[in-house]
Task: structure prediction
Amino acid sequence: MASLSQTKEVPSLGSLQLYWLHDAWYVPESLRVIILGLTLLGFDFGVAGTCTAFPAFQQKFGIPFPSQPSGYLVPAHIQSGWSGASSAGSIVGEIIVSLFLLDKIGRKHTIAVGGMITAIGIAIQVASTEWKLFLAGRLVNGKYFSEFGF
Result:
């Protein structure tokens, strides 16, 4: 086992090199950003899908549906629109990022701008009072995922 002060190189995996450092795997910063982006993407879809089952959410965005325990149901076409809005926002964001932002302001500033834009998208979703506004928030928030190329 390597001591805390020793570092030894392990076999290369193509362009990705991992190093054994401090008795744990060292993951390069670029890979950490990708892992974080994938985690946030999964979390976004998971939370948005789970919220549709909450009675308060169904009453706010759904239609009356007596056979449901809450008495309301969010129609499938609205839920599909919410899921598709993130993908559409990602496509639009990717075009904006690749054509304008990335070369002009750099990778780090582009990610910072994406973080600010996603905060705006989350604020729109939290403050929404009808499903169309929630859809707009999902669209704006979807732009953030394009920062990582998803």
Notes: The chain has a mean pLDDT of 77.
